Protein 1
Amino acid sequence: MSKGIVYLVGAGPGDPGLVTLRARELIESADVLVHDCLAHPGLLKWRRADCEVHCVGEKPGPRALPQDRIEALLVGKAGEGKRVVRLNGGDPFVFDRGGEEARALAEHGIPFEVVPGVTAALAAGACAGIPLTHRDTGPAVVFLNGREDPRGKNSVDWRACAKLKNTTLAIYMGTARLAEILRELIAGGLAPGTPAAAVQWASLGRQRSVAGAAADLAERVARAGLSSPAIVFVGESVARRAAIDWFERLPLFGRRVAITRDRDRNSELRGRLEALGAEVVELPLITVTKDVDRLALVEILAGLGSYDWIVFTSANGARFFFEEFFKGFDDVRSLGLLRFACVGRATAREVERHHLKVECMPSAATGESLAGALIATGSLDNAKIIVATGSLNRDALVKKLEGARAIVDLLPLYKTEKTDLAGDPAADDFRRNGADAILFASSSAAQSFAGQAGALRTAPGARRPLAGSIGGRTSATMREAGIPVDFEAGTATLDALVEALIERLNGRGGV
C-alpha cells in the first residue's frame, strides 16, 4: 500500500473557535487522529464516525506515550496509507514536539504538512487584556521556555533576558519555577516593580489570571493556586491589563454550566455559553439515533407530489429526512411544491442549508405554537401534511392540525433514549466539582436526570447547581420528577434560556 500523509496541526489555545479552517477541514477528513490532552474535546466531534483516535497525553506535563512511540505511531499509520492528523495544543512548532515529529517523518520518507495554530501566549495576552507589544511601552516580545532543560544544554539565561529593554517576556511552562525565574530576572537588573501576570487556561471559561509585580507575582500565583497550563508575562505592557481586560468581564465568565442535550445538539448551546465566558460541562442525558419507519418512508416519498406541507419538530427530524430523501432522489426539485414548517431556528437551518425556504416558524419553539402558526396560514383545510416525528413526540400537534381539517401522515425518523452516564468523565467532573447551573432543554433530559439522580449527586463541597428550564412543559416535567425549577426561559428558545441564565446568576431573575 502506498504511504499516506501526516498533518501536524495546531489545536490552538483551547477555545475551538480559535483553530484554523484548515485544521477543521483536516480533522473532518482524517483516517487517524492523534491528539494530546490540551486539544479541546470539541475538536474531536468534527471527525468522521470511522476515524481512529489515539490520545497520547492524559494531562498537562508528562506524556502518556513516550515521544519515540508517538513518532512510531505517526510513521506506522501513514505507512498503512492513511491520512493522519496529529493535533498539538497551541502551535506544533512553538514549544512543542512538532519539529521532532517532522524530522522523524522526513527520515522515513513520509509526506507531511504543518498547519500553524494560535499559540498560548497570543491567546493569553488577548484574553487577559495584555498587549504583547505596544508602540509606547513594548515594541518587542520574546517567547521563553520556563521549564528547566534536564540536559542543561538549552536553559534560558534569565539574567541576560532582564537586560532586554522595552520588551514583553512571555514565559511558557514556568509556573513550577516561577519564584526562581523572577529572582533571576531581578538579579539581572529587572526592576522589582515591573508589571507581571500569569494566565491559566487562556481562552476558556475556566481561565484565571493573577497580576502583580515581578517581586511578588510568584507569591500571588501560589496563593491563588494557579498551575500549568499557564503563561507568565513580564513587562510594562502588562500594566494595560486593568483597562482592557475584556474576556474576564463577560457575563458568564467564571461560571460552570452543565448542559443536557444529546451530544450532536449540545454544540450549538455550548458555543453560545462559551462565547459569553462560561465553562461548559456536557451531560448528554439523552441520545438521538436514526430509526426510520421504512414502510411509511417509501409510501410518503412515492407520493411527495400530493402533499402540501412537511412539518419538522426538531433539527434531528429535518436532518434525517433529507439524508433519506437524497438516497432516493438526486434533485431537490423532486420535492415538488412541498412547503416547509419548522419549530424553531435550529430546525429551520437544517432545511435552509438545502437552499429551501421555511414558510412557517412560530416565535416560541413548541409543538403547540407550531400548530397555531400553521393554522394561522389558513391553508390547512383538506391539506395533506407530513409530520416528521421521533419516538417521544407528543400528539398535541397532530391533534390540532387534524382539528383544523388537515390530513396528517406521520413519518417516524428517529428515537430518543435516556443515556447512562455511569463512567462518563464529564459526569465524574460534575459530581466532583458541581456547576453554577444545569440547563434542561427538553422533558426527556429532565426525566433522564431524575432517573440517574443518585449517580449524578454532587460531592460535599462541590457547587450545587441552579436548574433552568427552556419552557413550561419542561418545567412541569422537572417538578413532577422532583427537580426544582430555579429559572425558566421567557420563550421556548435557546436564546431565551441563556438570557434567563444570565439574569438568574446575576441575581435579577426568577421563575
Note: The chain has a mean pLDDT of 91.
Protein 2
Amino acid sequence: MKLGRITLLLTAAALLFAPALQAQDAPGKKKIAITKITATDAVGKRMSKQGVGLSLDSVLEALDSQVYDRILNTKRFEVLERSDADALAKESAAAGQAFAFNKADYILTIRVDSFNDRMEERKLASLGKTIRARTIELSAVAKITEVSTQRAIASTNFKILKRDSENRSENTSQRVGEGSDDLLIQAVGEMAQKIAGRAAEVISPARIIGKRDKIVTINRNDQSGIKVGQTWEVFVLGDEMVDPDTGDKSREEVLVGKVKVTRVTPQNSQAEAVEDTGIDKGAIVRLKDDVESEQ
C-alpha cells in the first residue's frame, strides 16, 4: 500500500515538473549585438564633395534604428544594447584581442559602401511639362560574426534602387527648401528588412512548427518579410556531410515539397502545401518565389 502511494506521489511530481524541465531544455533565443552602422571613407568624402553629406547622415541614422527595430521584431533574437559597442571594439583591437560584446552569440556589422542621391530633370516642350526624377541608390555589406569562434558565418551585399518623379507645368513656381525624405525612408526601410531577413535565415532558419492536413504553420511573423502569395520550398535534414577540401560540416537538405503562403499574423504564418512528399513538423522552409517575381 505504501509502495503504491509513493509511486503515485512520484508520478504526480514528475507531471508537475515536466513543463519546467521542458522549458529548460528549450534552446531559447540567440543573443545578437548590432554595432553602429557606418559608411566607408570614400563614400563619405564623395557625398561631402557633391553637397549631399546631410542625406548620407540621415540614411546612416535612420538605418541604425530601422535595422535594430526589424531585427527585434522578427522575434528570433534577443537584441543586446549597443551604446558601448564601438568603444569596446576599438579597445579590443588596440589590445590585439578578439571583440566579444556583452556575451553575445553573434555580432552584426553593417557598412554602407555606396550611396547616391541625385535629381534628374527632363523638359517636355510639346506638353509644357518638366519631369523631375529623384533617384536613391543604396548599397551596404552586412557581416554576421559568431562570437565563440570569431568566424564570419555570412557576408552579404544588399543593393536598393528607388526612383520617384513629379510633373510640373511651366507656370509652377520654383520650389524652395529640401524635398521630401519619403524616398530615403523607403530605401532605408527596404534595406533594413533585407538585412533582418538575412540574419534570421542564417542564424535561425524558418521552420514548420505545425501541420494540419494541407495547412502548415511557419515560425515567421508579419515583420520578417514573409508575404501572402510567396512560394517556399520545404526541406528535411538528412545526414551530416563533411567537405573534403575545407573540413566544413553541414547537413544534407532533402526537398520534400512546396507551400504557398495564405496568411500572415503578428505571431506566425500559414501556408498551403502544393507539393508534399514528406512535409512534417520541424522541416526547414526557404523562399523560392517572391510575390513580385510572380507578378
Note: The chain has six helices and twelve strands.
Protein 3
Amino acid sequence: MLLILKALPSKSEGNETPRRRASRGSKQVFLREISLLSSRIAVMNPRIIIAALKGGSGKTILSLGLVSAWREEGYTIAPFKKGPDFIDAGWLGFAADRPCYNLDPFLMNNDQILRAFCHHSTRADLSVIEGNRGLYDGLDMDGSSSTAQLAKQLKAPVLITLDVTMTTRTAAAVARGCQIFDPDVDIAGIILNRVAGIRQEALIRSSIEKYCGIPVVGSVPKLEQGFFPERHMGLVPHQERDQAESAVTYARQTVQKNLDLDEIRRIATSAPVLEWQPTSVPRSFTEKPVELAHECQPRIGFIEDKSFWFYYPENLQQLRDLGATLIRIDAMTWDALPRLDALYIGGGFPETQAQALSDNISFRRSLQKAIEEGLPVYAECGGFMYLGERLIVHGRSYPMVGAVALEFVLQKKPQGHGYTVLEATGPNPFFPKGKTFRGHEFHYSRARPTSKEPLDFVFHVHRGRGIDGRHDGITKKNLLASYTHVHAGGDAAWAKGLFQAAVRCRKTHIF
C-alpha cells in the first residue's frame, strides 16, 4: 500500500483552498492507516536546506529571514535544524511561531529522521532546514552525520551560503568543487554573502552560472553588527533578547531585499517525492497520549525560564504521550516547588542568571528538600550546574541548590563539546544497567568536588568529556544529573525511565 500525503505551497492564512480543507478532514484516516507496517508513505512536501562551507557564514540569519518572509506572505513554515542545537532552533521556532525540530544523523537513525520530518512537515506549506558547520563536515572521512548526508536522506535541494569576502571567480571553483565532491547531493543554488559591491557580485554571479550551471538566488551585502550578538555558545538566545521581534524583522527585511524568494520557492517545490516505509509504528502517528486513571497520572515538572530552556520538543512530547501531566516551573520567581511526582531540569545558561537563581533562596531550599526526600529528578548540563553547591562566574561565587558535592567553575574555553556515547555502569533511577546511549555536550564549566568522599558516577564515557574525561552521571537517592543532553527522538529509554519513576513516586503519595 502506498499512502500519499501532500502539502501544497498554497497560502494558508485567510486563503485556505478546498483541497487543503479536504486534506485536514482526511488526516485522521491517514493516521489510522499508517499503522500498517507494510505501507509506504510518499510525502510531497516542498523543502530546502540552507547550508554553508563553515560555521559563521551567515546561514542562521538567512534561514531566519527566509522563514519570517514566507510566513509574512501567508505560508505555514515547518522549521528544522540539523544537528544538536538549542539556540538556533529556538530562534527558528520563534520566527516560525511553531516548534523547530532537530534532525540529527548521529542521534537518530534514518527511520527516525524520516518519521520526524514527515510528521512535523505534513501540515506545513514549506519546510526550511538549516544545516550546521560546513556542508560536508562530519564525524569521519565518509562525512557521516553531515548536512550533506541529511540532504540525501531527505532528498532535499541545497542552497549554499557562500562567504565571498575578498574573492571573485574562485567562488565558482569552490561551488563547482562542492558539486563534484558528491554528485548525489542536489546543490540547487548559491547565496552570495558579505558582498562588497556590484562589480564583485556581477563577476561571481556570471562565473557560477557559467561553470556550475546553477542560479545565484541571492546577494547579501556586509550586514550591520549587533542585531544578533554572539556569546560563548553561539547567538544570544531570543529569550534573553528584549528586541527579538526587531532582530527577526531585520533578518526578514534583509532576505526580502536581497534574495529571490520566488526562485527559492520554485527550487523547494522541485524536491522529489520522499518515500518512507516505517520499520516501527510511531506513537505520534497512530495514537493519542495514553489515558491513565487520575490516581496513576503522574505530574512531571520541568523548569523553563531564562536560565533553563534547552528542551527538545520530542523530550517533553514523549512524556506527554506516555501519560504524564507536565507542569512548567520558573526557578527564578517561584517561591517553592509545587506538588510533583518527578522533575526534569534541562540545560541553559545558569551562569548568565546566577544572581537571580542564587537570590531565590526559598525555591533552592524547597528543591534541595525534595531531592533529600526522594523526588525523582533528572538534570542535564545547566540543570546539573544548578544542583551543585555553588557556581563560580568570573571569580564570583553564587550559592546554588547544594544537592551534589560539586562546585562549577566557568572557564573561558569549552570543557566539553560534541557528541557523546555513554554506558550506564551503575545503579540509577532512569537507565537500566548496561544501557548504552548517545547524546551531546556543550559546556564551559568545570566540575570540582567539594568533598573528599568519592563521587557516585553511573556513566562510563565511551565518547566525549563528561565530568572528568572518563565518567559522567551523578546519583543521589532518586536524582540523576549529567552533562550530556539526551534526545528522545533517537532513544526513548530516558523518557520511559523518568515516567516510570514518577508513577512509582505517585503511588507512594509522598509529594
Note: The chain has two domains: 46-272, 288-508.
Protein 4
Amino acid sequence: MNVIVEKFENVITKYPGLANFDQGARNGIIHVIDRILIYNEEEMAGNILNERIRIDVSAIFPELTNNDVRWDLSKSDELVTFIPSGFCEGLVQNNESCEIFYYRPHATYLGSWANYQGDELIVEGLYDFKYRIPHVPAGTYEIRFGYPRGYYRGICQFYFDEKICGIPVDLRWNAATNITIGWTSDKDDSGKQLTDEEKSENDKAMRNRGYMKGPASITLETGDNGGTMRDSEQSVRKIVGTFRLLKNRDYWLRFKDVTENSDGKNQFDQDYLELVPTSVLNNPLKPEDIY
C-alpha cells in the first residue's frame, strides 16, 4: 500500500491538475498511477497474450454503458431501447430498413433465451450493418460468432474487413440447421454422461462443420431447465475464420440478410464475440478447454 500511495504522490507532483483529485469512491479508493506497477514479460508473452478473448457484443459499444442504456438496474427487465443510427460510433447501419434494439438482462433458460449476461442486441428488418471489433495485440486469431439460434433469424452473409467469409449462414433453428451444425448432447439417451473421449470426438465433428458448442462456463437459469450454454442446443458458436490482425488498425465485421424472398422481418441476434489466438488452438500440450 505504501508503494501505491508513494506512486500517487509522484503522479500529482508531475501533474498539478490532479492536486484536488478526489480518491474516494462508493466502493473503494481510486489510486492514480502513470505506469504499470509490475510488468512480467514472461507472463505477458507466455500466458496473457495467448488467452481466448470473449466479450458480450453489447460491451463493444461504450455508448450503451455511458448513457445508461446497459446495466441500469432501476429499469424494468421488460424494457427495450431503440438504438438510432449513428448512436454508437463503432456500429454502422447500411440501410434504413435495419433497426437495432437493446433488450435489458432478463431470465435465460436452457432451450430458450440462452444469452450471455442475459441481454440482447437485436437487429430487425432486411438488415445490413457492421461493427468495429475491439483492438487486440497483433497476431493471428480465430474469430467466432456466438449466437442463440431462433426461428426468425434468417440467413446471413458474413464479411470481415469487407471481404466475404464463406457461404451464407442459416441462423434459424430448424431440422436443416440441426443437421448442418451437428450438435449432440454430452449425455446418452439414458441421461448418463458420455466419456471425455466421446465428448471430444463430438466437438471435433462440429469444428469440422465450422461450429462449436456454447461455453460450459456460462450458466443458464437453474431448476428443472438448469444447465450451461454447452448443454443448450440453441446456443452455438460459428467459426467465422482465421485472420491476421495488425496493431492499431480497425477491423469490421459486417452482417447482411440474404434470405431468399425475405419479408424484411428477420431478427438478427449476436450474443458474444470470441477472438482466439491460434497459439491457443495449436498447443497439443494444453488444448483449449470447453469453458
Note: The first strand starts at residue 24 and ends at 25.
